[in-house]
Write a structure and sequence with these properties.
The protein has two domains: about 150 residues; about 140 residues, PH-domain like (Roll), CATH 2.30.29. Helix 1 runs antiparallel to helix 5 and helix 9 crosses helix 10. The strands form three sheets. Strands 1-2-6-7-5-4-3 form a seven-stranded mixed sheet, with helices on both faces. Strands 8-9-10-11 form a four-stranded antiparallel sheet, sandwiched between helices. A four-stranded mixed sheet has the order 14-13-12-15, with helices on one face. With about 375 residues, it is α+β, with helices and mostly antiparallel strands. The longest helix is centred in the N-terminal third of the chain and has 39 residues.
Amino acid sequence: MFAEFKSKILKGSIFISILCILIGLGLAGWNAMDAFYSVAGYKDFTQLKPEEIKNQLVKVDLTENFGSYLEEQSKNTKTGSVKTTHLYYIIWTGDDNAEDWRYMTIKVPARYAKQMDAMTDNTYNEIRSEAIPFTGKIKKLDKEEYSYFKSTMKELGLTDADIEAMTLPYYIDYGSQTAMTVLYLLLFGGGMVLLIYGIFRLAKAAGGSSLKKLRQDIAAAGYTEAAVEADYRDAQSYDKKGILKVGRLMTYHIVGSNARAIPNTKMMWAYQTTVTHRTNGVKTGTTYNIMIFDELTPKGHTFPVANESIAKDMLTHINATLPWVVVGYTDELKKLYNKDRTQFLQLRYNTCEHVATDPVAEQPVPDNQG
């Protein structure tokens, strides 16, 4: 039994665990440096040599630019109106004393257009503008962006050879330092959480700690593991994977990555629920569940089953073999269970011997499910 449960949990956990590990590695690895620099401090863009410029988080006090060459726009699908959201401006790398510099791009929100255009005029008139502080992440221009950049540089008089030698295909993508810091820390932290969770889940399933609560359930019920092993072998299965089984001593199931068992002697009430799913008024499916309430979990367990036939078979089996369990649903039973538990228990639980029976034929449960 224990080996079977361990195998089922491992098979059920391995896909989700590996998925969490891969996503976690991707998020944490991809955002690790950004998260580090967002905390340790942004690089001074003017101090980066051309060959060092790649994908850093940078800050710059911009005083010069050579004009805008591209607008990013958004369209309102309802009104059809179009507005400019961002502008691409040509800047250069290095500080005033740099001997090795390149032209590249900064992408800024449209609200900076007036200041940036005035800075452009000042640059061509050799007037130093008041610095505008920007922070952002260096990214590579995509094919379309670079084609506009290259065309503009040619209009400014550069040849293909000049462009190759004097430009970089990168841009500073403006972003609020606070917002970027929060974003990268959340992405990195989320990745680490997923990574640790995936490793823990996989180790738990492979190492056998997923059986710890099952052993505790067995011990708390006062049974020996040998007795439960025998009970499990003869238990009735109510799903294809054999995860949900009802024996004479206990009802066996898996919750997440833990094997569990409910002592049948503590079971009070069982019934079926049926949920119809609809999308835009059209039926898209039906979910069938068995609800089981016991003294240890008075709020109930929910066990999904494949169809209504299996649900009825399970309730019929419980009704026939566990005579102290109230089987079936009515609003009156629900009210009695919630408002007067003592009276509810007098219906069967306190009036029947809690010994599983083995009738020749199981009688079907009346069709009064909720």
